[in-house]
Structures are given as C-alpha cells and as structure tokens.
Design brief:
Layout: E1 6-10, H1 18-30, E2 36-39, H2 40-43, H3 56-67, E3 70-76, H4 84-92, H5 95-98, E4 102-108, H6 115-124, E5 132-140, H7 153-176, H8 180-184
Length: 195
C-alpha cells in the first residue's frame, strides 16, 4: 500500500488569513511539510448556483481533494458561523471527492470562540459529502498568538494536543484506506444521505 496522502484545507476566503498561516504550521509541525495545503482564498471558487459549470479552479480543487486519503479542515469562526466559502466548497465537492475519508476539524478564533463551527460542521458538513469527522477536534483560540513563540505554556499543551489529534487522523486514514472502495460501492444508488 502506498503512503497516505493528506490535504489541509484553509477555509478562509480572506487575504492574509490566520487560518492559512495555521494551516502551514500544522503542515510543517505534524506532516513534515508534505500535506497539500488548499487555500480557498487563492482558489477563488465561483459561487455555486446549480447551473454553473466547474471552471479550472474548481477542477483543480476537486482533483487535489480526490487525491487525499485524509483531510484537515481549518475553519475560522466568523460571527459564530463557518465561512460561506466552505459551504460553497461542499456544493462543488461532494461524495466523489470526500466520501469515507477521515477528517479532522480545527476551529479558529481571533479571540475565545471557535466551538460553534465545530458543532455546525458536525451537524451539517457530512450528509451528502459522506465525510467521516473524527471524534477528536482542535480549537485554536487567540489565533494571532499561536505558534509564533509568544504563547508559553499554553502553546506547549496545544502542541501535544494537536499531535494527539493528528495521530488519530493518521491512524483512521491508514485503517480505512483498504476499505474505501467497498464503502463507496453503494453511492451510485444512494448518493445523498437520509434526512
């Protein structure tokens, strides 16, 4: 079996986002810089309307997600919600790209928030995508102070907790990879999750 491939999706669609910086930190610290970091700001996906054809940017993101065996979603909390660009991604990339892939949720907040996006995506982000959210997640609070040498003791804890979460992701990914073809078999007949 080949080595599992990972993608880290920075779901902010703002320039210079902390989510993108933290995605890079996660890549360097826990994936030895070998994960594919997908930046939704740079991707600039068109707004899905049900009729529009996928452009080159959409096709590129779809291919990169399809190539990954495990995923990390780095999601900023904006006004207590996940960014619209992430919901747009779920409309462009569905079960053919995401189904039965383990995914680690990472909530990001400039202050003390971050939990609402975890709850939101656990309740709605899996239905038609068929993503497998890990039972573990991370919340990166006071994001501007993280992993830049200023957070002290809390940064050491966060480093250990993040390593634990990423190890879970890698373990799930390796365990599920051989079964994925079998798990995908019924999706032609039942492409959408039951409501």
């Amino acid at each position: 079996m080949s080595m599992p491939q990972y993608a880290i999706i920075s779901t902010s669609h703002r320039p210079g986002a902390e989510s993108l910086r933290l995605s890079g930190e996660i890549n360097q610290r826990f994936f030895e810089g070998e994960a594919d970091v997908i930046d939704l700001f740079a991707a600039d996906l068109p707004f899905w309307n049900g009729e529009r054809q996928a452009n080159d940017s959409v096709l590129d993101v779809q291919a990169r997600i399809s190539a990954a065996d495990g995923l990390v979603f780095v999601v900023p909390e904006w006004h207590g919600m996940a960014p619209a660009g992430l919901k747009n991604l779920f409309l462009w990339c569905n079960h053919p790209h995401f189904a039965h892939k383990p995914a680690l949720l990472v909530g990001v907040s400039a202050s003390v928030g971050g939990a609402f996006v975890i709850a939101e995506l656990r309740s709605s982000g899996y239905k038609n995508s068929r993503l497998l959210w890990l039972p573990e997640h991370l919340i990166l609070r006071n994001a501007g102070d993280l992993w830049n040498g200023t957070a002290g003791e809390s940064e050491e804890y966060l480093q250990r907790r993040a390593a634990y979460a990423v190890t879970q992701l890698k373990t799930y990914t390796e365990a599920l990879a051989p079964a994925r073809a079998t798990l995908l078999a019924g999706l032609d007949d039942f492409p959408n999750g039951m409501s």
